[in-house]
Amino acid sequence: MDGRVLPVLVGPTGQPPKIYRIPVPDAAGGPPVVHVYRRVPRGHTKRLGLLRGWKYEYDPTGKADGLKWPWSKPDSAPGAAPGAAPGATPGRTPDDTDE
User: Would the pTM count as exceeding 0.70?
Assistant: First the structure.
């Protein structure tokens, strides 16, 4: 970032966004580079442990966490063989038939 102060848009609860994505145009005309900043607590008070506010830290990985709903499927099932088809029965091959 170049030191400019930007207005912070807040959500319906009055909280700033958890993730800021800042696209920076490429000088050569290529696709823009996206810098990701995540909201982290600034600190806590000594006596009551209240939150002092928020600050944004640069995230070099730039990966989005995505939604974490209880009904979301994980990337792979625990104990599943790598490269196995989703929904496949463990220990069986497609050639096995029930005869």
Answer: no
